[in-house]
Write a structure and sequence with these properties.
Elements (H helix, E strand, L loop, with lengths): L3 H11 L15 E6 L4 E3 L1 H5 L4 H4 L1 E7 L6 H9 L2 E4 L4 H10 L3 H7 L3 E5 L14 H12 L6 E5 L5 H8 L19 E5 L26 H12 L5
Helix pairs in contact: 4-6
Amino acid sequence: NGSFSKGVEEASKILNVKGEVIPVTDQNTNLYVQLKNGKIIKGEERVNHNFEIGKVGIKRKYLYPEAKASKKAIQKIMEADLIVIGPGNYYCSIVPNFLVKGISEAIIESRAKVVFNCNLVNKEGHTESFTLEDYIDSIGKYIGKDRIDFVTFNNKKPSSNLVKKYKNKKEFLVKIKDLRDQKRKYKIIKTDILSNEKVIYGKADIIAGQRAFIRHDSDKLAKIIFRILNSQIK
């Protein structure tokens, strides 16, 4: 169809998608991470499977060639009543959106409430030591301003078997650093948003080992988000 956006529109019709899927940019670009030791990692796949990022530290994260936000993405952000960030792979799925020129600026200018759905588990080699506060501080730096109004945080502990399974991979449950911190500009909504559904992947799923077993319950999370949207949580 001549562009990625038009291709997504056509795919959405075929799949009977409710709502709209709007690419953040139509430009062809690549994700780069420069570590503090000078090493440069190119591409989402390589970034995702690099385990030095958390240990060495990031000097710079950028897109090349530089990408400009699509007009429709900007328009929808400016029209939004609620902007929802996450959950997802932090450095590969969440942060890259803020690297597209115009997106962070639109979020800053928007009058929408901004919600961050905190990940349940940290990723080995990337966000191993991250607390909830670290995620918020990091997002604020990428956007260029503290724009998070609400944070959803799961307070139900997964089964000990699942916790052990993740610990063996050096992936730990996200924690809150200081429950007594009264200086926060955002409200933390601590509630049960954990999926109780047993996850079983088929033998034909070649990337089953990379998929999440500790995951959000979409219905529970949706109810909290709609309560925020309807000003039932302030």
